[in-house]
Amino acid sequence: MELRQLSYFVKAAECLNFTEAAHKVFITQSALSQQIKLLEEELGVPLFDRIGKRIQLTEAGSLFLTRARHTLKNAENAKQLIEDLQNLQSGTLYIGVTYGLTNLFTETLISFSTKFPAIQVKAFFGTSDELIEKLKSGMLDFILSFNKATDDQMITTIPLFQSYLTLVIHESHPFASKKQVSIEELNTIELAVPAEGFTTRKVLDKAFRTNELPYQYQIELNHIPTLIRLIETGKWATVLTKSTTQYLPTLKSIPINKKKLKLRSAIRYLKGNYQKKASKIFFQMILEHYKQNTDLN
Fold first, then answer.
1. How far apart are CA 220 and CA 192, in angstroms?
2. What 3-state DSSP class applies to 190?
3. The pLDDT of residue 112
4. C-alpha angle with apex 190: 99 to 200, nearest 5 degrees?
5. pTM above 0.85?
6. 295 pLDDT more than 60
7. Largest Cα–Cα distance in the chain?
8. 3-state secondary structure of 104
9. HTH lysR-type domain: which residues (predicted)?
């Protein structure tokens, strides 16, 4: 069993298409198929069901995928140990970012990549739940996310800051002059909100339920930039963390119920995993940028 075979298998499992997977690992489709077939013969079980041009993971394939990813991650960690000795002259960081922390991440990325241009950074955006799953599967080195405190024994958490949910509106919105709004008032305006799965949405839904208020959103989106575009029209309002709209001068963030709705941001990584030198430096830069910018709260 070779690492390249595991790599080909993982890519095929992610694409569920041999041709697409082969293209992404820069080999021919026939070569990839042959290596996966050799892997299956060594394991003694099929990893994929082949249905015409379509492929699907078998039960054995699904179980093997997790182990294959961890094996590749361990190999990458071993390689990183040596690369770290070269004083950050090479290597790659895989970072997961939730949308509400985009501004903090972007500022840190600019500083980091300017100082360490030889380090490649690959960033993946998603909901906190999606990022946790990618982290556990070994696809990410660490994530920046909003979440409740977790007792997950697999994950180490470095707390960052507490951020409050606010009503986000355009400066032309009828509520623009308000100093704060109540949960009850949110029911009187047209809301466009993040889709289910976003931590922000979970907290908002819970607030309505806790106050025994009926709620129905006119628009739900899983793409925050599009949501922001809607709010900029002045017709809709939304609920997001204050940090999300930090650099959008035409939008206003109005506190809800005296800042009772809050989230805690954190850096999270898998316990026991080797922490790259580049990761540790990125962590420190995040903390420095936060200390320089208290508006994130």
1. 6
2. coil
3. 94
4. 25
5. no
6. no
7. 69
8. helix
9. 1-58
Residues 60/47, Cβ–Cβ less than 8 Å: yes
Cα distance between the two ends of the chain: 50
> pLDDT tens digits for 89-143?
778 899 999 988 888 899 999 999 999 998 899 999 988 888 988 888 888 999 9
Residue 239 near residue 198, CB atoms below 8 Å: no
Q: Domains in the chain, start-ordered, CATH in brackets?
A: 3-73 (1.10.10.10), 80-160+264-296 (3.40.190.10), 163-263 (3.40.190.290)
Burial class (CB in 10 A: 0-12, 13-18, 19+), 131: buried
Q: Rounded to whole angstroms, what are the CA distances from 270 to 100, 104, 158, 198, 230?
A: 22, 22, 12, 21, 37
> Residues 271, 156: contact at Cβ < 8 Å?
yes
253-266 tens-digit pLDDT: 998 885 568 888 88
- CB atoms closer than 10 angstroms to residue 150: 12
Given a contact cutoff of 8 angstroms between Cβ atoms, the answer to whether 278 and 77 are in contact is no
Helix, strand and coil content of the chain, in percent to the nearest 5, comes to 45, 25, 30
Q: Please count the other Cβ atoms lying within 10 Å of the Cβ belonging to residue 225.
A: 9
Q: What is the DSSP string of 32-48?
A: HHHHHHHHHHHHTS-SE
Q: Which of 189-193, 284-288, 292-296 has the highest mean pLDDT?
A: 189-193
